[in-house]
User: Fold this.
Amino acid sequence: MFFTAADCDFTFNLEFHRRIPVTGDVISSAKRGDSGDGAAKRRRALKLVDRALSKRQYKSALSLVKQLQGKPYGLRAFGAAKQITKRPSAMDNLSLQPLVDSILDSIQPCLQISAEKLESLIAEGRYPSRCEEEEHLICAQHEAGHFLVGYLMGVLPKQYEVPSIQALRQNRFAEGNVSFVGFEFLGEENKGRQENKGTISSTKLKQFSCVILGGLAAELLVAGKSDGHLADILKLESVLIWLGLPNSDADRHLKWAAMNTAFIMSRHSETRSILAKVMALGKSIGFCIDTIENCLQGIEI
Assistant:
């Protein structure tokens, strides 16, 4: 591997993921104590969300989700994640420190690499170095990390892609992605950022930063190291530069984002694992959301 994270205790058995059965319901509502009628109502509502997303009616889709937010048999988990405050004392969570250190250790080398250098590393075949089956599994976990952190922080995923094993056999560097409603500012940071600083809300920056780090955190939890985070970190750096944050403020923000992402991801590893299996099958956004809600039924978020 070209980049390796610091060793940590957050390792994962890859065979566990291969043994998780994926059915139409993923996790039956009965097992979580959910009403069959209530679960059916949620699925019907999520089909409307899928329909709006398929028509690129993103505002309508988000409005539907917000109408379901917090309702009985609605979307209990959307935007409901417990988070770390920005008080310095909140940074002292020793149980999360190995994962946080690994995230930060993985970020720093990326900040010293240009986009051109990244392309040359890919051309040299130094990134990634897994077999196609393992790369498919890790890619699904990576994208599930983005998806889950975004959803739990109140950002609606609008589409995603996890490359198939066949696609990876044809192109070892095929990449997955997840895009979100509300991150339309992406791309703007490359337009005239020398002349004008960009502006987004503090909440949006927090959400975006943690979503970006969600993929990296997922890989570290599953495999103990990450190959698929380079482009993500370069995008995060680009946004921070576009916003004109001083280095000291950017450093503090990154440390908080790493801690907050580690906090969320460490609490919901099982949900991320099952979501990754569903995403690897190419299920709809609504189906993925229903999977998350079923997994977290009756669990503190």
Notes: The longest helix spans residues 202-223.
